[in-house]
Amino acid sequence: MNWPTLSILLSGLLLAGCSNLYQGVYEGNNIYKDAARTPDERAMTPSQSYGTYQKDRGKLQQEDAATEKNESPDFNLK
Question: What is the pLDDT of residues 33-57, one digit of tens each?
């Protein structure tokens, strides 16, 4: 196998392995935070899953985009 083919193959594998990087970081952070909480605290308020986090984040981004459109200054002086 020649070097260009090998480098393309390895790049593809690297990108495929990093596709869930943000989810892994989020879940790892939740595990770290849960370790400091008591079992009662974990039972009463469980950690939010990554899927739920993504949905909530998407909704907030859409709301922010709509708010920015409504609050943009009007520079057309008449």
Answer: 999 999 999 899 989 999 999 999 9
Degrees to nearest 5, angle at CA 27 with 22 and 29: 95
Look at the block and give the residue holding tokens 């308020």. Answer: 45
List alpha helices for 18-49, DSSP H: 21-35, 39-44
* SS3 at position 8: helix
In contact, 27 and 49? CB cutoff 8 Å: no
Helix-helix angle 21-35:50-70, to 10 degrees:
110
User: How much is the pTM?
Assistant: 0.57
Torsion angles phi and psi, residue 77, rounded to 5: -80, 135
